[in-house]
Design brief:
With 212 residues, this protein is an alpha/beta fold. It has one domain: Alpha-Beta Barrel (TIM Barrel), CATH 3.20.20. It is 38% helix and 11% strand. A 5-stranded parallel sheet has the order 3-2-1-7-6. A two-stranded parallel ribbon has the order 4-5. Helix 7 runs parallel beside helix 8. The longest helix is centred in the middle third of the chain and has 19 residues. The mean pLDDT is 95.
């Protein structure tokens, strides 16, 4: 039996892994994050929506996608968003050696630095894998970022209505996960626009996470 994934991260998890970033305590803002891009099918439309609502976000980029779509990645940079490392090939730490996983992170880091001339400490593990070896793998120059609220846009069974309802549960200080890949495009874009309207109406700032 597989238990359903909770939309809001349980407190016991955040307390058990206090060195990872789960939210931003005492902040008046909400922090939107997008995983798996950049992609030409979805990322530019997300950027257009964010610009229209004067919102900032953080993009956890797959290094291979950055190399394939450097112009879109540079647009993320130039429009004032922050970004983080999501490995080079969306690697799963459960399916490969620690050495290969570390090489993938380092390659992604170097490629994003090459295309942006800026470094980032932010790292999010693909699949949201929690592993006590991240400190050993990453060293002191990375910050592991998880989330406090899932939109569930990545689930095939999540309708746009459900995704919007999940997003409306956001609180100040939350880190929210959405995706900028082609598979989730329709649900993500419609839900994001509804959320941006809601945040604007309620005068809630939407910011990118600090990269250092």
């Amino acid at each position: 039996m597989t238990l359903p994934i909770p939309i809001r991260t349980p407190r016991w998890i955040t307390r058990f892994y206090p060195n990872y970033l789960w939210g931003v305590p005492h902040s008046k803002a909400i922090y939107l994050t997008f995983d798996d891009g950049p992609t030409p099918e979805t990322t530019p439309q997300i950027l257009a929506l964010l610009k229209a609502y004067q919102a900032k976000a953080t993009f956890f980029c797959v290094g291979n996608n950055v190399d394939k779509h450097p112009t879109i990645f540079k647009q993320i940079v130039e429009e004032g968003h922050s970004w983080g490392n999501h490995t080079y090939h969306h690697n799963d730490i459960k399916k490969e050696s620690i050495l290969d996983y570390k090489k993938s992170i380092e390659k992604s880091k170097n490629r994003m630095l090459f295309h942006s001339n800026q470094d980032t400490m932010l790292f999010r593990p693909p699949q949201g894998r929690i592993n006590k070896k991240y400190k050993e793998i990453l060293g002191i120059d990375h910050k592991v970022v998880f989330w406090s609220l899932l939109s569930m846009d990545h689930k095939a069974t999540t309708t746009t209505e459900v995704c919007i309802r999940n997003l409306m549960k956001a609180k100040r200080g939350d880190i929210i996960v959405l995706h900028d890949n082609i598979r989730t495009k329709e649900t993500t874009l419609k839900s994001l626009e509804a959320f941006l309207k809601w945040a604007t109406k309620n005068k809630i700032p939407l910011l990118g996470l600090p990269m250092q």
